[in-house]
Specification:
The chain is mainly β and 303 residues long. The chain is 5% helix and 33% strand.
């Protein structure tokens, strides 16, 4: 007779990789709508789809060549005596079109949650997700619906030198008093940078007023703020349908132009409350003004 409290056999399973994704706009973990797959770099057809856990972690198992590792004990001795890790490409697409697609490469297995380490707040383009780098950042698509109470800057980026859309260029909007907001263009150069409206700058503190913070003459709809736009861009040929996220965020600085003649770099732009800010260059010699914002990669001489 077997004692019901007796352990006959213990089975352990090791998940080689667990990833969480962070949306700066909604300020939360994204646990729905993402299609996450992994494959060896040399065998993109050997695709394995991640499943989503109840805590919003996308977990990858049954990866090619890792069967022995996945049936390991998972204890300290197991992790200290691993064979060499193997690279896998992680491809992420949003089935609801909220976020830009991307991919990145990971050496697996990874103990605990995967840690995102590409891009820092001091870099000229991206910044790590908040609050923790154990989450991979997501960037809005050009067609994403803008949540209420948030601002958006839009542009169609055009590489005038190559006469083609500036696919996968990065735009960073710097707003006084806020962390910079970042947007990544799609393969057609369309970009949306979405962020909360800054605090009004014309409020004064009056302890006798009700409420104590009182406006100094402007209604909310009259508020406006200066925005400084920076760009990063390196043209790729052919243009990948899905870009490498780390390489995208680490592109070299590029120049945004106020005019088609490339005689003046784009100055500060002005954001007005309740209005989308659409930024484009101008052409003093043309009867019809361009609808695109001209960009040139670093080292490209002006016309």
């Amino acid at each position: 007779m077997i004692d019901p409290g007796q352990i006959i056999e213990r089975l352990t399973l090791v998940a080689p990789l667990g990833i969480r994704f962070w949306d700066e706009i909604s300020d939360g973990v994204v646990s729905d709508g993402l299609l996450v797959v992994a494959y060896p770099p040399a065998s993109p057809r050997r695709r394995v789809q991640a499943f989503r856990s109840s805590s919003g972690v996308y977990v990858l198992r049954n990866l090619p060549g890792l069967q022995a590792i996945e049936s390991g004990t998972g204890d300290s001795d197991f992790w200290s005596s691993l064979p060499p890790r193997q690279p896998f490409v992680i491809e992420v697409q949003d089935q609801t079109w909220r976020f830009q697609p991307f991919l990145f490469t990971v050496e697996v297995p990874v103990r605990g949650l995967f840690t995102w380490e590409c891009g820092t707040i001091e870099s000229p383009v991206g910044s790590p997700p908040s609050p923790a780098s154990t989450m991979v950042p997501l960037y809005p698509s050009a067609t994403r619906q803008v949540p209420g109470g948030m601002a958006v800057i839009r542009a169609d980026l055009w590489d005038q030198e190559a006469n083609t859309p500036a696919a996968w260029a990065v735009i960073r909007a710097s707003i006084q008093g806020q962390q910079p907001a970042v947007g990544i263009a799609d393969d057609q150069g369309r970009v949306a940078v979405i962020f909360p409206y800054p605090e009004p700058t014309d409020f004064v503190f009056d302890p006798q007023a009700s409420p104590p913070l009182a406006a100094a003459g402007l209604s909310l709809t009259q508020h406006e703020w200066p925005i400084q736009l920076e760009a990063a861009y390196f043209p790729l040929s052919p243009v990948p349908p899905i870009p490498d996220l780390c390489a995208t965020l680490l592109q070299p600085a590029a120049t945004l132009w106020a005019d088609a003649a490339q005689s003046q770099a784009l100055p500060q732009v002005t954001l007005k409350f309740g209005q989308e800010l659409v930024v484009h260059s101008y052409d003093s010699s043309a009867r019809t003004q361009p609808s695109v914002l001209y960009i040139t990669p670093a080292g490209s001489p002006p016309f």
